[in-house]
Design goal:
By secondary structure, the chain is α/β, with parallel strands linked by helices. Helices cover 39% and strands 17% of the residues.
Amino acid sequence: MVVDYLSAEGHPERLGPLAMELVRAKPDVLIAGFGALAAQAAKAATTTIPVVFTTVGDPLGAGLVESLGRPGGNVTGLTDQARAVQGKRLQLPFDMLPNKTGDNIAVLLNPDTPFSRLGLEEAKTAAESLRVRLAVLEARTAAEVAGRFEDAVNASAGGLLVLEDPLIYSIRGKIAELAERHRLPAIYVYKDSARAGGLMSYGPDRPQIYRRAAEYVDKILKGAKPGELPIEQPIKFELVINLNTAKALGITISPAVLVQADEVIE
């Protein structure tokens, strides 16, 4: 087996030409990595070579598949999101707010990412049931992020929900630092963000998703049609809590929350 690996190195405008370069090599399967943009570039580059994406938050919203049960065409893969998860993510920082219904919770997102739009709608639904207001902070570039934290302070936000995409994820350390500086208890999607100094994360077991993607590739190499392989959603989610960050924020994590954690960073 020969694997050719190409990276846009944080520059999404390079994805299209890189996908075309891979297609010219006539591979048996194309694998699209983290996020929707790589998958969209792969789909645009070929209608015949099977494409397997790994962690696309909203395959339908990204225009990659016709349906989750029967994707159609030459594209299939795995999503790293499941419905109702945003409610759980919003509940955790909400439980730490001193005034509960008197506080806002800020949501940091990149509005150009299809999953972020879907995640925001789910967060709004969860916020209504919790009777809190959401302050939406949009950042399309890394340079815009610091200003969005100033907006969160001006909105009297008491907590922060971070909807991570490749852009937000790539600066997770900076975001964790800004959240601590502005005294915002924040929850993230991926545990790498908690390990980079974020307060907590609640998200899928990504290594397991990548292993399942390999199994999809195996099925295709043995003759399965990608358009007939259903989009698989994660079934295992992990809660990671960084007690060092909690201490820096002056927050005491309740035993009821700690006992739910799959990993505690001390």
